[in-house]
Amino acid sequence: MEDKRKIRVLRIINRFNIGGPTYNATFLTRYMSDDFETLLVGGLPEEGEKDSLHITEKYGLEPLILSEMQRDPGLSSDRKAYKRIKQLIKEFRPDIVHTHASKAGALGRRAAFACKVPVVVHTFHGHVFHSYFGQLRTIIYKTIERRLARRSSGIIAVSELQRKELTTVHKICDPEKIRVIPLGFDLQSFNTERSKSRNAMRTELGLAENEVAIAIIGRLVPVKDHAFFLAAIEKLMDNTSVPVRVFIVGDGTERNRIAQEVERINNRFGERILMTSWITEIAKFNAAMDVICLTSKNEGTPVSLIEAQASGVPVLTTDVGGVRDVVLENETGFIVDVGDLENYVTKLGILVEDEKNRIKMSQNGWNFVRDKFHYTRLVSDMEAYYRELLENKGKK
Fold this sequence. Notes:
Elements: E1 7-15, H1 20-30, E2 36-43, H2 53-58, E3 64-65, H3 75-92, E4 96-100, H4 102-114, E5 119-124, H5 135-151, E6 154-157, H6 160-169, E7 178-180, H7 188-205, E8 212-217, H8 226-239, E9 244-249, H9 255-269, E10 273-277, H10 282-287, E11 291-294, H11 303-310, E12 315-318, H12 323-326, E13 333-336, H13 341-353, H14 355-372, H15 375-392
Parallel strand pairs: 1-2, 1-4, 2-3, 4-5, 5-6, 6-7, 8-9, 8-11, 9-10, 11-12, 12-13
Helix pairs in contact: 3-4, 4-5, 8-9, 8-13, 11-14
């Protein structure tokens, strides 16, 4: 008897840069059941970003790189990427095209519609509807997303708050068209590295035993608001006697501007702030930290906060995107309104000066994220959703 044909999924990601979408796409490609065959494709990072191909390599994947896929809109590159995706669809003959993030969602879904792919799904890992572009450009993007959503088989949000924003606030589509499927990660290494690597990593970083290590991890771009973070750090150092060291992990378009501010603050307090660029062994790095911060104006699901809690590190974050889905307020960290510098500094001061509170939050973090954000839950949820959408199309 002839073997039953596998369900083919063409998975398209904006670009292979450090962040949640790469992990999401990797686990959904690597760990789907044998009923599925997945082809993972995507573009490369923009200038100033580190690629995340070490992640796919770690899990034994060789994604297909679409050099035509560029983050910024451009008629020539977008046309080439669109044609290339159509060609891939005709060759691979997928039952499902699943796009991740905005550029992949726009080009991939258009190509899938043109090729009459049975099921077309899109995941919003974040969105660009505020804090990225001006009013006119934002209106254009919303209009495009509404048209694409109407024709899509299903839309995936990574948090309940994101679903609310997409439906109630920005009116991208009706609530019944959205399924909330939180991200999933391979978090065990973060827990084991915490106990195994902390002392060695602190020695490597030159941290004294009494120093409190603070980190912020992410792209150096305006939406991450490193200016707010550095303002908070400067106020903290003006008001605490506890020795602190600060690590800015990442790279991006704002690097030079941030470096100038870092130099100014270091001239006041000594070399207390270090810019590290990207760190690939982030579990080992996290093990040496005492507090991990986020100051973004807009987020989807902030991976750095999940990884921090898995490492047993308390977090301090602005109240954006899916933050409240990934942080237990006052139990694993503090959540502060965007722009509230005074409260941010106050909460940072508590974490720096109250070691007992840090220890309590450290113990709570792993227990909270261990099951909720594991990749096995992600894969199970997604398989069930794929089958549901295929059944709705009369497919088996």
